[in-house]
Write a structure and sequence with these properties.
Helix 9 packs across helix 15, helix 12 runs antiparallel to helix 14 and helix 13 runs antiparallel to helix 14. With 358 residues, the protein is an alpha+beta fold. The radius of gyration is 22 Å and the shape is globular. 47% of the residues lie in helices and 11% in strands. The chain is built from 15 helices and 8 strands. The strands form 2 sheets. The chain has a 6-stranded antiparallel beta sheet.
Length: 358
C-alpha cells in the first residue's frame, strides 16, 4: 500500500514536471481529489469531528470522534443570558463542552496529550489568505473558525452577524470555491471570498487556522484517555457557577427569582423576547436541531464506552434525555425544577466517575 508520504512525494514530483496544482496532480495519480477522496464522516461535536477527520487523513490511527472528545476533557457546563440593546433581543449561551469559553483550548489539549505535531497560524487578512492558499495547494486540510452567519449555509438571521462560530475543515478547492467538512455527509462548497470574509469577522479569533504536520503513526491513546478522564472530573468538580456544574443550579434559581437582574421573570416580564430565548435554549440542548452537537452527553457516553467505563455510560444517556426535556419546556417553574434535577444527576455522575478514575 502506498503511504501518505510516498503519495505526496509522487504528487510533488508531478507538480514539478507539469506545473499542476496539488489537487490536480493528485487526481491524475489516482489519489484523493477534493470532491471524492476526502472521507466525510459526519459527527456531532465540531471540534472533535473535524480533528478526527484531519488526523485520519494524515494516517494517524486508533482514534474516533468520541475518544478525541474525551481526551480533550469531554463535557463541560456553562450558562449565560445575553441581552442586546441594539435589537432588543435575548440569547442563551450554553456551554456543554470542556473549557467551552476558550475557542481552541480543547483542541490544544488533545494535540498535546497525543503528542501530535501541528502548526497554528494567525495573521492579517491578506497574509492569512495567502497562507491558506499555499496549504491547500500543498494538499493539506486546514481547520478554521468562520463566523457562522457570514459563512452563509446556516441561513441565520442578520442579528447573529459577528456572534462567532465553530471550527470547520477546509480540505480542497474547485475554481473559486472551497470544500468544507462541517460534519456534512455530502460535499459542501462555499465561495472562497465568503470563507475569507467569515474567518476575518470575529476579532477574538479572526484568521485563526490549524494544520496537522504529523503523519503515519499510532499515538499513545490510552495515556491520553486517562488525562482526559482526570480533566473532566477536575473541571466539573469545581465550584464555579459560571463554568462548572453549579452553573446549572444557578440557572435553575434564575427561573423563579424575581429580584436578580438576570432572573427570567424580570427579564421577560413583558414576554416580548421570551420566544427567542426559549428557541436558543432548545437549539442549545438538542443536537438534532442545533449546530454544535447539543448537550453532548451521548457523545460523552460513547467515550466512556470506548475508554473502558461502559458501566457509567447509560446514566449519561439518561441525563441527555433530561436535557431534551428542558429544551421542550416553556414554563419557568418547570424548567427550574428540571435544571435542579439535572444538576443533582450530573453531580452524582461525576462523583461516580471520580471514584472510578481514582
Amino acid at each position: 500500500m502506498t503511504s501518505r508520504k510516498q503519495l505526496k512525494a509522487q504528487v510533488r514530483a508531478r507538480m514539478a514536471k507539469t506545473g499542476e496544482r496539488y489537487t490536480t496532480a493528485l487526481a491524475h495519480l489516482g489519489g484523493a481529489s477534493p470532491d471524492g477522496g476526502w472521507v466525510l464522516r459526519g459527527g456531532t461535536d465540531p471540534d472533535a469531528a473535524g480533528l478526527n477527520a484531519m488526523l485520519a487523513a494524515r494516517g494517524i490511527s486508533g482514534l474516533t470522534e468520541a475518544l478525541l472528545f474525551g481526551i480533550g476533557g469531554g463535557i463541560g457546563a456553562g450558562y449565560i443570558l445575553w441581552e442586546f440593546k441594539h435589537d432588543d433581543s435575548c440569547h442563551v449561551t450554553l456551554g456543554f463542552s470542556n473549557t467551552w469559553q476558550y475557542v481552541t483550548r480543547r483542541t490544544e489539549k488533545v494535540l498535546a496529550r497525543l503528542g501530535i505535531e501541528s502548526e497554528w497560524h494567525r495573521s492579517a487578512p491578506k497574509a492569512a489568505q495567502a497562507w491558506l492558499t499555499g496549504r491547500l495547494d500543498a494538499g493539506d486540510a486546514v481547520m478554521v473558525w468562520p463566523d457562522r452567519y457570514q459563512i452563509g449555509y446556516w441561513d441565520l438571521p442578520e442579528a447573529l452577524d459577528g456572534h462567532g462560530g465553530h471550527p470547520v475543515v477546509v480540505y480542497g478547492t474547485s475554481g473559486d470555491r472551497v470544500y468544507l467538512d462541517d460534519r456534512n455527509l455530502a460535499p459542501l462548497t462555499v465561495a472562497r471570498a465568503d470563507l475569507d470574509r467569515a474567518v476575518a469577522r470575529v476579532g477574538t479569533w479572526k484568521n485563526q487556522a490549524l494544520v496537522i504536520t504529523d503523519s503515519d503513526r499510532a499515538p499513545d491513546v490510552e495515556a491520553a484517555v486517562q488525562e482526559g478522564l482526570r480533566d473532566v472530573v477536575e473541571h466539573l468538580s469545581q465550584k464555579s457557577d459560571s463554568f462548572s456544574l453549579p452553573a446549572w443550579r444557578k440557572w435553575s434559581r434564575m427561573m423563579t427569582d424575581t429580584k436578580a437582574a438576570k432572573a427570567w421573570p424580570k427579564v421577560f416580564a413583558d414576554g416580548k423576547r421570551l420566544g427567542l430565548a426559549l428557541q436558543s435554549v432548545r437549539e442549545g440542548v438538542d443536537g438534532r436541531i442545533g449546530v454544535t452537537g447539543g448537550n453532548l452527553r451521548p457523545l460523552f457516553a460513547d467515550f466512556l464506552d470506548q475508554a473502558g467505563h461502559s458501566g457509567l455510560a447509560p446514566r449519561w444517556r439518561e441525563i441527555a434525555e433530561m436535557w431534551h426535556a428542558v429544551g421542550e419546556s416553556t414554563e419557568f417553574a418547570a424548567i427550574g425544577r428540571q435544571l435542579a434535577e439535572v444538576y443533582e444527576a450530573e453531580t452524582d455522575a461525576i462523583a461516580r466517575l471520580k471514584a472510578a478514575v481514582n
